[in-house]
Amino acid sequence: MTRTHDSDDRPTETNSSTDSAIDAGSGSDRDPLFDRVPRRDFMKAGAAAGAMSSLAGCTGLLGGDDSVSLEDVKTEVKPGEHDDYYAFLSGGHTGEIRVYGLPSMRQLMRIPVFQPESARGYGYDDRTSEMLEESGDYTWGDAHHPRVSQTDNDYDGRWAFVNDKANGRMARINLKYFETDAIVDVPNQQGTHGACCLLPDTKYVFGVGEFRVPMPNDGQDLTDPENYTSTIAAINPETMNVEWEVLVDGNMDNGDGGKEGRWFFATGYNSEHATTESEMSSTDTDWVKAFDVPAIEEAVEAGEYDEINGVPVVDGTRDSALNEGDRPVVRYIDVSKSPHGVSVTPDGQYAIASGKLDPTATVIDIETLAEADDPNESIVGRPRLGMGPLHTAYDGRGHAYTTLFIDSQVVKWDIEKAVEAGEKSTDPVIEKIDVHYNPGHLIAAESYTADPQGDWLISLNKLSKDRFLPVGPMHPENDQLIYIGDDEEGMSLVKDTPSYAEPHDASVVSADKIDPAKIYDPDDYDEEFVGGDDSEITREDGRVHVKMYSMRNEFGFEEVTVTEGDEVTLTVTNIEDRSDILHSLAIPEHNINIKLAPQETREVTFTADEPGVYWMYCAFFCSALHLEMRSRLIVEPAE
Length: 639
Ligand code: K7E
Ligand code: CUA
Fold this sequence. Notes:
Structural class: mainly beta
CATH topology of the domain at 536-636: Immunoglobulin-like
Helix content: under 10%
Bound molecules: sulfanyl-(tricuprio-$l^{4}-sulfanyl)copper, dinuclear copper ion
Protein name: Nitrous-oxide reductase
Subcellular location: Periplasm
Keywords: Calcium, Copper, Metal-binding, Oxidoreductase, Periplasm, Signal
Number of strands: 40
GO cellular component, one term: membrane
């Protein structure tokens, strides 16, 4: 299930949350005001964490001893060497995912998701253009939260998922091919913002609806914002079908799933139900909403929902009958002012929400949540971290790292100390490091799993100001690599990486957990493989179907003749079986460029509407005779 480090240049990973739990157990004197829950059974917590670390094959060294100094780790990746990690960064309103290697921070690939992209022929062949059309025919999206699927709380290398905040969609990226293979337009959501997997086994992918709208948004309640609502959507990762949604009060923002398949957490703002910024921030508290997934599933099972736009929608608003009784579907936890990020600790014990407009984070005890009469009783810590706390990541050694947007810092703090220390204490703060500038998300290696690697952290900074050569009024952003593996020396800033607008979140996955294909498996797609002897042209009633292969340095036909007005479908296979030899088929003046990786088949359909000669050419430099790799499309005038 989890990897152990055996190479010399990687830190030895241990799970010392055990140790901090034990430390915290000895002689804690918590703020009485804050001591609302029974003291944690630290032996039990220790045993659980110990079990986890033995599962992980860890050595269980005591705190501090397991950290590794920067001199002893690989920070440079020499020419020809490979990185230790894949990082999947969202591309914000470019609508794409970028793949980096860590620790080099080299950009390895871009994966178009919500927007057409010519180098990959994405949105130019029939399959991908239909996928984009059917999900709403938008030409862009706003990708924020790339999350990689997990099995047993560890990355399984199957898929990444990412939200489209702009158009209320969720997409799936197939990590065998590093390409988008499904997009769902989430009904009843404008602005699908938070995205995350329900763990331990990715039963659902949750899309968190941010913008409150009339429900259904069909012209009713236009000027009655009090009646607007937002939903979370539970999406089946296999089918990408929206199984159910839950209606709530207030806007929602980010989300994260517990580690045990029961709870899903979403932050939110605008408990005021307002429409302007000043009204939305007028009260001192908003909510973290804790969704009790099995309780919701039972409600769906029992038919306790309204069907809205084809989706069963369960009423999880505060006044809902489903929230009365001892098994509410949604628990509303009061946290300070407009919380933004929420993330569950690797051991599954706490959900930590960042204050955004309040200098604290709120630590929610997940175990207590199930039993507490008042969900606010599950708040067990509120460390004072600094100005503008947005997102929190983990190293697996009991520390949390939170971005401070306004202070332009990352703060490292001790989770169990925060639970001991009580309200608004700065005691849990271990260290702050300056970042450049104004960080949004940060992500540590495998922070979203039960077993973070604890060596690298990326701070995704919104502004770069003076850090790079100027390139006009629009600046690059700055993704900074920080080493967090040495608890004695503290955090070290290792690298600045300029990035194009705009990474929000990322997932960092050990390289050996992803197994990309080198060539296509024709069985994975519907398009029919066209071998060398199978090239043929069929004509029927103004429809022309051209099947042909491509290889260095030719296409299956040197010329293809059609008649003006014909609807032409080209099915083209790259029959190379050597990796990295790509061809494409581009047709001038027809807006066509399909990418063909080895053994890949793509189809494109277009109308040959202007008589003339059009060179079909290959746009990937594939051999010394690449420029000569072309055929003619001859369009004869209609009678
Ligand atoms: Cu903080 Cu969309 Cu995750 Cu951006 S959200 S930063
Ligand atoms: Cu094939 Cu260039």
